[in-house]
User: Fold these one by one.
Assistant:
Number 1:
Amino acid sequence: MAARQPRFNQQVLIDTTPLPDSIPKVPELGASSAPLLSASFFIGARCRSYNDDYMLCKTEAHGKGELDCMREGRKVTRCAASVLEDIRTHCLDEFRSHWQCLENNNQQMWHCRRPEMKLNSCVFDKLVRFVRDIAIRSHTDEASSPQKLEKVIPGTPENETPVHLRKRQIYSQNA
């Protein structure tokens, strides 16, 4: 039995120190982990260059560059916000269905392959972008023309169907 009584602090602590003017102001995404996980492939594909710049800045700062890398971090946030906004605009029902499945299944992707397939097909059909990324394979040879996107998982054997395209998931409860 403990000798002292527990003390609980129920106050919300907010740091009111403003950021320097050299750091651009960006609103937070306001998304929980499930929508971010649902859109993670698309965020990673479109925002790869911003992510690389941010990680390079963090690496070069040796863990001491919080304010130095804030500008690059804000670019990543702005890019992710644009991806989420595009998905919400064009594929809201499929997006909501997929992230709610993730939320209800402990963030495990293998339970939610059917909603993921619907979300992927919607995004690949409706969100046409200029593709110059390693993680996305184009259907034409011209890199500067608008192209449909295709999800490519690194290390997938050429003669096998990728896991996100399989009609029946072996271990899923929702098969």
Number 2:
Amino acid sequence: MAMGADRAIHVEIDPKTSSGREKEGGAESESQELEPLGVAKLLAQVVKEEGRNFVILGKQSIDDDSNQTGQMLAGLLGWGQATQASEIVFEEAKDGKEGWMVKVTKEVDGGAETVRSPLPMVVTTDLRLNEPRYASLPNIMKAKKKKLEKKTLEDYGVDGKRRLRVLRVEEPPARKGGGKVEDVDGMIKRLRELGAI
């Protein structure tokens, strides 16, 4: 809140009831994180309760790198979505339509892609969208007086039950070393031997 938010909601998660204990190899393993679907369901309830029509989220989390929550949230709400936004512009609707349009630009391999959608909308961001503010000491002190609401998953009617299980994680097979060729003719000959051309 020291970076500019006026208020916040802190949803507390009880790891014993929300993580879903599983036995692997005779030992209990426990995880405290919600899966992307659980987070999307929680956010959908917050959006409905707060009466919002625009949601902006990060592109992906730093823990499991899923890049799924924003897309799932848009699906649960039945809203339009744009992903990996590097620029967001709000425009008044034209052609006699009421309301606002959101123009979102994202970087793609060949340049930039721009999409437009009416509100309500969910947007996930890219790191080029903005420069984060730094929390100054006066703002840190002011943040202590701002409203922080503590809630639980049960307050929103969401269960934190795990639906996914990691079976195994393994490294990809090591690559075979390549061979050197003297010239272009040698490369073409080698590719023919391998059946590539």
